[in-house]
Write a structure and sequence with these properties.
Distance between the termini: 9 Å
Largest sheet: 5 strands, parallel
Structural class: alpha/beta
Number of helices: 14
Number of strands: 11
Bound molecules: N-(3-carboxypropanoyl)-L-norvaline
Order of helices and strands: HEHEHEEHEHHEHEHEHEHEHEHHH
Radius of gyration: 20 Å
Strand order of the largest sheet: 9-8-7-10-11
Helix content: 25-40%
Strand content: 5-15%
Length: 317
């Protein structure tokens, strides 16, 4: 693997999931692979799970990990080519990314969308500049449009917990108080469309995701109908793709938050969420604290997802 930015970088997703599960059984078996190798993790946005699980994965492989919260600790970055830098930006991304590439063997980058300019976000302007200028393999730690390490951990979790060969997986939109990226749902949809599952997406009208990511999925505006017989429910808020970054019908979809009542018609569904979750806005206490919640298990699996990916990249260095 030369980079990990989406499901399209993976040759065999089932093999990658199997490798992650093997690493979970034997985390320290491959420590010589990462000896004297360094990963740099660069964050332009906050992180808890991605930061810690990727560091842990690197350590398990014998690597060193260095973290830079570049938005707070680095120089203010200029992104525009040809800019005359007489304002607030101090360093061009061309030099910043290139120098980071001198210090590390693999670079992880987190760059959220601005949610103002769809074309800019969906062309992955910032993330792709890191890829272009750093000169080493890049791992997405969540870009403007995707969060593949999360989606891989989600598929690992579904593979581990499923009780039927081909489970029904429902991704449901949930309420929120502010506009969130489409990266997590885009990415989850893209992975599920490649996985051996029956995949349904449900959301209120106005929240359709880009078909680039949902092609092949069943989509309904009726949450009740979608939840029938579900084996897994993947809960996530996202803002609209059109009109971009907005929250149509804000306040009128509060009943989209799942409660125990919503689970009655499911196949005793496991409930997933990438976290962080706003309790009693996106998901009720009773679900998060109840027997059907798989969120802690799911996010524990972030380590094995990252470790399987880093292992494959290291093997190709
Ligand atoms: C991010 C998102 O893409 O939805 C990260 C998820 C892994 N979530 C948030 O930004 C939540 C912010 C909030 O205020 O709840």
């Amino acid at each position: 693997m030369k980079q990990f930015t989406s499901v399209h970088d993976v040759t065999d997703i089932n093999a990658l999931v199997a490798e992650a599960l093997a690493l979970k059984q034997n985390p320290y078996g491959n420590q010589s692979l990462g000896a004297n190798k360094t990963i740099g993790l660069v964050f332009l946005n906050p992180s808890l799970r991605t930061r810690m699980s990727t560091q842990k994965a690197a350590l398990n492989l014998g690597m060193n990990a260095m973290v830079l919260n570049i938005d707070k600790e680095g120089w203010a970055l200029e992104l525009q080519d040809g800019a005359i830098m007489n304002g607030t930006t101090v360093e061009h991304i061309r030099e910043a990314a290139a120098v980071l590439g001198q210090y590390v063997d693999i670079l992880g980058v987190r760059s959220f969308p601005g949610l103002k300019n769809r074309e800019e976000d969906y062309s992955e302007t910032i993330f792709n500049k890191f890829v272009e200028f750093c000169g080493v393999p890049v791992v997405s730690l969540e870009s403007a449009t995707r969060h593949p390490l999360q989606s891989l951990a989600d598929l690992i979790t579904i593979t581990e917990l499923k009780l039927v060969e081909r489970p029904k997986v429902v991704m449901t939109w949930a309420p929120h108080i502010k506009p969130l990226p489409q990266a997590v749902p885009n990415s989850f949809a893209e992975w599920m469309c490649h996985a051996d599952v029956d995949f349904v997406i449900t959301h209120p009208e106005g929240y359709d995701l880009s078909t680039e990511f949902t092609r092949g999925a069943a989509i309904t505006y009726n949450q009740q109908e979608a939840l029938n017989g579900a084996d897994f429910i993947y809960v996530k808020n996202w803002s609209a793709y059109e009109p971009y970054g907005e929250m149509p019908g804000l306040g009128s979809y509060d009943n989209w938050m799942l409660t125990n009542q919503s689970l009655l018609q499911t196949n005793n569904a496991k409930v997933m969420h990438c976290l962080p979750v706003r309790r009693n806005i996106e998901l009720s206490d009773e679900i998060l604290d109840g027997a059907n919640s798989a969120v802690i298990h799911e996010d524990g699996n972030r380590v094995w997802a990252a470790q399987a990916v880093l292992e494959e990249i290291l093997q190709g260095l």
